[in-house]
Write a structure and sequence with these properties.
It is a single chain. By secondary structure, this protein is α/β, with parallel strands linked by helices. Helix content is 18%, strand content 29%. It is built from 15 helices and 44 strands. The strands form 11 sheets. Strands 19, 20, 37, 38, 39, 40, 41, 42, 43 and 44 form a 10-stranded mixed beta sheet that branches. An 8-stranded parallel barrel has the order 21-22-25-32-33-34-35-36, surrounded by 4 helices. A hairpin with a 2-residue loop joins β41 and β42. α5 packs parallel to α7, α7 runs parallel beside α10 and α13 packs parallel to α15. The radius of gyration is 41 Å and the shape is elongated. 49% of the residues are buried.
Length: 814
């Protein structure tokens, strides 16, 4: 009979038993959310406990709810915490299911299990909750990129607009911030500024940061070398000139200008017999008594008298335009009655422009009204200049004083000579008028003076009339000097205005050089060079120099920084770097391409000719050397802006140093300002930059009059003028060595000045400083020690620190 295991078999007296089988149990999974109610925008956590009678559970847990599944969380002593990110769950009553999976060690004790809990999820309000902005500091003289982080609920845009503001009540500029968040610091700078980002999605939401503006640390500047043994040239005293417009006594007392010019648009039609001039397009083409806002009271003889008392040379302007104002004050060329629809002044005088939609004008900017002989006669009288080609011009050898005095310009010059006597031919100072400009900016006669001169100037008009006028001046006053052609526009240096306007209407390029019919008719010679050649030829014919100065107006400040306030440090750096236009053959500007005449060596048929370095002073000298040797050079209008600030003063001081170093013979600053504010108010800092050269101690002490070779170079041997510019000169009155150092950076620089070929006899140098620390005075500084030459050397040295944006003058006795 068969007998099976674990089954009792009959007939035997013995029996057999086994231990019971162990089975895994289901643990309890407890789920506890950190909150029973959340919004979709809120993150929350869920704590999970797995427990049972078999001891501590090991393994992991995973939470699911709807479409959301968490990552596995490992149990620690039977517990775990699961983080639920915001916007993970749907709105409503959500069931949180946590599934437990035992690990190998716990699988014999616990089965997989799950637990649940519920949480109520409500929709969060959509929108921006906060905007944060960074960084919170910037270094002056740099650009800083700001970023904004926009946080919120729902679909939130990161797009913002940017603003920067200064401290309440602070007069200092806060700088500028671009739409990209790129911030450019100001100088001088407040201690802090506030940068604000405003949401473009919801303009009621913004965030701000207070930004500390920190000065750069003092560093080592370029090496400065002044070679006292290398005297390069005499410095003309006439480079320290001003235009008389807006000039006042206070400015003259501070700056001590060496020359004052009677010039500008109003000078072109000044009637010396009636003391009446016309404001032209500057102000409704109206006749006024005198030249408004001109130094000396608006009367030319008043200017001469005042210049004499200030020991300044006078530069006058004689007309070549062909018209002078008549005696009818208040008359205006384009009256509202005759030309209805213009913008008018006092309901009578019009600005000479028909607005769009008026009298057939379709131009968005309006339509200019041009004059004719009957219009011209309302305000002006015809005074044609001497045409040197006319039959009435005296032959060589028969030019007489009577002939000269019979001309308009010669008669004026003679009246001044009789009243004041001649000026000193060397310094220009003394009694009478030293120099006469041949009119003012012919380039714009057909715009500014279009009521009397609607046609653009030609080669022959400006050249031949200028020569005849110069002959009359020189005959009436043989000591007088003449300056011309007083052109102010890059293209007009190379083309007549007739050419330029032809070019603007000639395809395919429609550029000023596109239709040069006038230049072509004159042998292809550039305008100013032709002018010089003709003056040279007629000077030989009449056995007298007819042109003493080749004269331009140098409005070359980059990116429209002339006639503007200082701006942020980016604009300031452009302004300071822009002075290179006067001397640096590598400096170019997008506004000045090469003139592109067909015979030019680099002529191109492209409508975009390459840029050309103006290199203005050397260009003038080259023209003189090629076309009329011995002629001096003049820039009798220029303005680089910022004259109300230390940056404008630094730039202006640099310009004056360049003029002396490069050998310009005459310069005159045109002011920045309005008719209600005089030079001393608007451009006080610029006046002090002149004073550093002309009156640094308040006792009329001056910079040297003989230029010395002066070099600023970095440790790597490159040009250091972008940091420190240095100008050295010897003063003939006492042989002192004067050194002007200009810090163009926004931090202090410490440098050593080497005085080569100079064994100092004094232990110290006098020091004078003009900086933003005091914009109302030049401040004497502690004496700077001079180290004499070491054995075997001939170089003395001085080491000192030059403050940010400053002008320092060191005077070394000899």
């Amino acid at each position: 009979m068969a007998c099976f295991w674990m089954t009792g078999c009959g007939g035997g007296s013995g029996s057999s038993t086994q231990p019971p089988v162990q089975t895994a149990s289901s643990p309890t999974v407890t789920v506890r959310p950190s909150s029973s109610s959340v919004t979709t925008a809120q993150a929350f956590s869920v704590s999970v406990t797995v427990s049972g009678n078999g001891g501590t559970a090991g393994g992991s847990v995973v939470l699911t709810s709807g479409s959301y599944t968490s990552a596995a969380a490992t149990l620690n002593s039977g517990s775990a915490s699961i983080a639920i990110p915001a916007r993970s769950l749907a709105t409503g009553n959500d069931i949180l299911t946590v599934n437990y999976t035992p690990n190998a060690a716990s699988s014999s004790t616990y089965k997989s299990a799950s637990g649940t809990a519920s949480v109520t999820v409500t929709a969060a309000a959509t929108g921006i909750t906060s905007i944060s902005v960074s960084p919170n500091a910037a270094t002056i003289g740099t650009q800083v990129q700001f970023t904004a982080t926009v946080q919120g609920n729902g679909s939130v845009s990161q797009a913002v607009s940017w603003t920067v503001t200064g401290s309440a009540g602070s007069p200092l500029s806060p700088g500028n911030i671009f739409s990209s968040g790129l911030y450019t610091t100001p100088y001088p700078a407040p201690a802090t500024v506030t940068v604000t980002a405003t949401s473009t999605q919801d303009t009621s939401k913004s965030g701000s940061v207070t930004v500390a503006l920190n000065e750069p640390a003092t560093t080592t500047g370029p090496n400065l070398k002044v070679d006292v043994g290398n005297q390069t040239r005499a410095i003309s005293p006439l480079i320290y000139g001003f235009n008389g417009y807006l000039l006042d006594t206070a400015a003259v007392q501070t700056a001590r200008p060496s020359l004052v010019r009677w010039g500008g648009d109003g000078a072109s039609r000044y009637n010396y017999k009636t003391n009446v001039t016309n404001s032209a397009s500057d102000y409704y083409f109206e006749n006024f008594t005198g030249a408004a806002f001109m130094y000396g009271g608006g009367n030319f003889t008043g200017l001469v008298t005042t210049d004499n008392s200030a020991d300044a040379a006078t530069l006058g302007t004689v007309p070549v335009l062909g018209w002078v104002s008549n005696s009818t004050t208040g008359a205006c060329s384009f009256s509202a009655a005759n030309y209805p629809g213009q913008t008018s002044y006092a309901g009578n005088c019009g600005n000479g422009i028909y607005p769009q939609g008026t009298n057939g004008c379709t131009n968005a900017g309006g339509c200019e009204i041009f004059g004719n002989s009957s219009v011209a006669a309302i305000t002006s009288a015809s005074q044609p200049p001497v045409d040197i080609t006319a039959a009435s011009t005296p032959a060589p050898g028969s030019v007489t004083n009577a002939w000269a005095v019979g001309t308009w310009s010669g008669g004026w010059v003679n009246s001044i000579l009789n009243a004041y006597g001649p000026a000193n031919p060397t310094t220009g100072t003394g009694r009478g008028v030293a120099i006469w400009d041949l009119d003012n900016e012919p380039t714009w006669w057909d715009a500014v003076h279009r009521d009397v001169h609607p046609a653009p100037f030609t080669y022959d008009e400006v050249t031949n009339s200028g020569i005849g006028t110069a002959l009359a001046i020189k005959t009436a006053d043989p000591t007088a000097q003449v300056s011309g052609p007083v052109l102010d526009y890059w293209w007009a240096y190379f083309y007549s205005k007739k050419d330029i306007e032809n070019g603007w209407s000639t395809g395919p390029c429609y550029e000023p050089w596109s239709g040069p019919t006038d230049r072509s008719a004159h042998g292809g010679v550039p305008m100013i060079e032709y002018y010089l050649q003709q003056f040279n030829q007629y000077s030989q014919r009449y056995h007298t120099r007819l042109l003493d100065y080749v004269d331009i107006h140098g409005y070359f400040a980059p990116n429209n920084t002339g006639f503007t306030a200082a701006g942020d440090t980016d604009a300031q750096q452009e302004r300071m770097n822009g002075t290179r236009v006067f001397w640096d053959p590598t400096y170019t500007d997008p506004n000045y391409p090469q003139p592109n005449y067909s015979t030019d060596s680099n002529y191109t048929s492209s409508c975009s000719p390459p840029l050309q370095a103006p290199n203005l002073i050397n260009t003038l000298k080259t023209w003189v050397a090629n076309d009329y040797p011995g002629t001096k050079t003049a820039i009798d209008e220029y303005n680089f802006g910022g004259l109300e600030s230390i940056n404008g003063a630094v730039t202006q001081a640099d310009i004056l140093g360049i003029f002396g170093r490069e050998g310009l013979d005459l310069g005159a600053l045109w002011p920045t300002g309005t008719n209600q504010q005089a030079d001393s108010v608007v451009q006080g800092p610029a006046n002090f930059s002149f004073a550093m050269y002309r009156n640094y101690d308040g006792n009329n002490s001056m910079f040297g009059d003989t230029a010395l070779s002066s070099i600023s170079s970095t440790a790597a041997g490159t040009d250091g003028e972008g940091q420190l510019a240095v100008y050295g000169a010897r003063r003939s009155s006492d042989h002192a060595v004067t050194t002007m150092i200009i810090n163009k950076t926004y931090g202090s620089l410490t440098s050593t000045i080497s005085l080569a070929n100079f064994a100092a006899t004094s232990a110290t140098a006098q020091a004078f400083l003009y900086s933003n620390a005091n914009l109302t005075a030049i401040v004497a500084q502690p004496a700077v020690s001079i180290t004499p030459p070491a054995t075997g050397s001939t170089t003395s040295t001085m080491t000192t620190t030059f403050p940010a944006q400053s002008i320092t003058l060191l005077v070394v006795p000899d």
